[in-house]
Amino acid sequence: QVQLLESGGGLVQAGDSLRLSCVVSGGAFNVAWFRQAPGKEREFGAAISWSGGRTNYKDSVKGRFTISRDKAKNIVYLFVNSLKPEDTAVYYCAASIASTAYIGSNAALYPYWGQGTQVTVSS
Predict the structure, then answer these.
(1) pLDDT (tens digit, 9 = 90+) per residue, 34-54?
(2) N or C: which end of the chain has fewer CB within 10 A?
């Protein structure tokens, strides 16, 4: 059974940094982080391949988001620096089967999703 469990969200101040974690179990997956702010569509942030050798970032977050994975622990991390109030959202990790090699931005191509973790950035 595939499971994705996010953690690490919370209330932070603008300018702070945060590390989100996604524990992945049940197979070999490429993993992405998406976020959804109130009243907005879910948007892609970053993705990493099963091997960890390839990454993909949304242009607007490059330099502030860093995705990495610890394969031994089956954890994918998202480091977010210089947080802004507009980063306030529920952050989700999503997985695509490793053999697809997919790390793009299309949410529909990630069949597995976690429940999300709330990040709130105060000004």
Answers:
(1) 999 999 999 999 999 999 999
(2) N
